[in-house]
Amino acid sequence: LPTPRFADKDVCSSLSHGCEQLCVNTEDSYICKCHEKFILKEDGKTCRYKDVCNSVDHGCEHICVNTDDSYICKCHEDFILREDGKTCRSKNICKTVSHGCEHVCVPTGDSYTCQCHEGFILRRDRKTCRNKDLCKSIDHGCEHVCISNNNSYSCQCHEGFVLRQDGKTCRNKDVCKSVAHGCEHTCVNNDDSYICKCPEGYVLKEDQKTCRLCTDGPLDLVFVIDGSKSLGEDNFEIVKEFVSGVLDSLEISPKAARVGLLQYSTEVRTEFTLRQFSSAKDMKKAVSQMKYMGRGSMTGLALKQMVERSFTEAEGARPFSANVPRISIVFTDGRAQDEVSEWAARAKRNGIVIYAIGIGKAIEEELLEIASEPSYKHLFYAEDFTAMEDISEELRARICEALRESAHQQDPASGRFHKTGLQPSGPESTTIAITDVIACPNLAVHHKYLFEDSHTHSTRTTAKASKDKDQCKCENLVMFQNYATNEVQRLTQRYILSE
């Protein structure tokens, strides 16, 4: 319908015009107008702000742009609008966030990923990188060579070295060649270390580097020498030389080796006590001046005096508490005219180690009673005096061995030595020792048979022969074998009957 014409009238005041802001009369009608900064909407009635972005809560993260009666959101340079039409994301998100990538940040849509330079791989944290060669990217601690193995590594050593148990450090396969070991004689590799060793007849000093004669340590030694008539003056001189030879191997001093000497015949004579001399020179002089007694052979009486007097503190022996080895060397050339077993046993119970040396007509049964166990270490026999040099050498070696083991064999509470060697297994066992001196010159053969439950379990044979003579001729072996066979049969029969 046409707009009513209202000449000369205020139309705006006379009707409900519906203008939101301003109603303006025209000649015969009216129009709606808007205040400054506003514009009329298409309905001709209502108004909208010319700058919509400033008139509404548009929510644009970066920029609001007016569009007719609305707006759109836009983003700053290097950013793009997200799907919500409001917020923005960087075209390169890596530049706008603290991504923490150690090497390279790569945008991926609204996010990013970390990547590594060539030759490196991403760690599990997805941020930091490590060398594909793991050994180059970590503090591996390998002393010599690090070998990468996927996500792990192993340490290896240069040629001539081996890896220690820590899996990191290396040691020379031959430690002795790689360090200034300071060993006086021999360096022996011991895992990743070394120990010093000494030649036969020597032991390490306390510094564990240098060596001394094994008999340089503390030792109380008493010789018990047969001076019976059967020995003879010439052989007595050989025995004196034997004693002097043993003295030469000892360090004689009050703190080291103390030596005493008894000579026995029908009676016993103390030639010198353990406290009497403090030098080898004085002892050897006393030995050279020793007078041959040349009468009976009271070996048991000599052992009695050795036990009751020679190893007493009054005569120079050190107390048991000092743990000083007590050794006696008993020399005999024939059957004793008295009983030896009681005092030999008492000596051994008192911690005295006895080495028995028998020459010529010495009786094996007595030597076994005198010698400490095991007899093969403490009993020496030769047919005549030409083997004395060999016996002297072997005796020194045995004493050395005993001294090295003394720290383990001694009972700290009593100072006594523990017996070692073959022991009977019970009341049903019998150990029988047989010694036969066959016709081989200077040869003593010890045979030990153990019978148990009517069965022979072991046979042990040891021999000592002169170095420069044929040990055994065929006829001597045959003679010995016949003898041994008969003896075993006899002893076996005796054992069976005793059952």
TrEMBL record:
GO cellular component, one term: extracellular region
Superkingdom of this protein's organism: Eukaryota
Localization: Secreted
Recorded GO MF terms: calcium ion binding
Keywords from the named record: Coiled coil, Disulfide bond, EGF-like domain, Glycoprotein, Repeat, Secreted, Signal
Residues annotated as domain VWFA: 220-395
EGF-like domain boundaries: 172-212
Keyword check for Repeat: yes
UniProt protein name: Matrilin-2
Origin species: Calidris pygmaea
